[in-house]
Design a protein that fits this description.
The chain is mostly helical and 217 residues long. The protein contains 8 helices and 2 strands, in the order αααααββααα. A two-stranded antiparallel ribbon has the order 1-2. Helix 4 (85-102) runs antiparallel to helix 5 (109-126) and helix 4 packs antiparallel against helix 8 (199-216).
């Protein structure tokens, strides 16, 4: 494997640490709200709608619109900006951490998660491609699917490329849940203030990416 490809994967794994950290942070500190994805939140919204709890429905609907806005932002900026969208994503993630860290006393858990909810889909779009495959760095369902399928195919066919893909998905999952574990351990100690430590994997991802750019030049 070439050095550039190795570095590309390192960037992907570091991004997954960030995704895992922010996902774990929102669940651990803000009553099981998942900032990285919307399936669980939308299920809660529909159930609250059935129960007539309009307060939570309103905040969940806004979180859904913010999540969609993050994707719209990505599409618009990717068409106009000359800078890499990975850099844009890192800036958005860092800004989200700073905003959440600056308002730790916000009592409404949804409002406290809104910056992360907006930044997450931008990271998803910017860091989804690695070594010719699609792999999410903000949630794990698709990675579990692909890791299992590719592992099974390798056992049956002994194809080396399938083994390489399986390893990539498993390592992405490991990186993601290392981020979750880190957020949980720090959350026990620092609670909502633990979010500041997410700047570390963001900075490491940025440093690795700029190193990759230097290699290209």
């Amino acid at each position: 494997m070439k050095r550039k490809e190795i570095l590309e994967r390192v960037i992907h794994y570091l991004s997954a640490v960030t995704g895992g950290f922010l996902g774990g942070y929102t669940i651990f500190n803000h009553t099981d709200i998942l900032g990285n994805a919307q399936t669980g939140n939308l299920i809660k919204m529909v159930l609250d709608l059935c129960e007539g709890d309009w307060t939570f429905v309103r905040f969940m609907l806004l979180s859904f619109l913010l999540y969609c806005s993050g994707m719209v932002f990505y599409v618009l900026v990717s068409r106009k900006a000359k800078v890499s969208m990975k850099i844009v994503s890192l800036i958005c993630s860092a800004a989200a951490v700073v905003l959440v860290g600056a308002i730790p006393s916000v009592r409404n858990h949804f409002v406290a998660c809104y910056p992360i909810i907006f930044a997450a889909p931008i990271q998803w779009c910017a860091f989804k491609n690695v070594s010719g495959v699609v792999s999410s760095t903000i949630f794990s369902s698709t990675n579990v699917l692909q890791a299992t399928i590719n592992t099974t195919n390798f056992i049956l066919d002994r194809d080396k490329e399938t083994a390489v893909r399986a390893r990539l998905y498993w390592l992405t999952l490991l990186s993601f849940y290392c981020g979750v574990a880190l957020s949980g351990v720090l959350g026990l100690w620092l609670r909502v203030y633990s979010v500041w430590f997410c700047l570390l994997p963001i900075a490491l991802t940025g440093a690795a990416y700029f190193w990759e750019l230097r290699m290209d030049n």
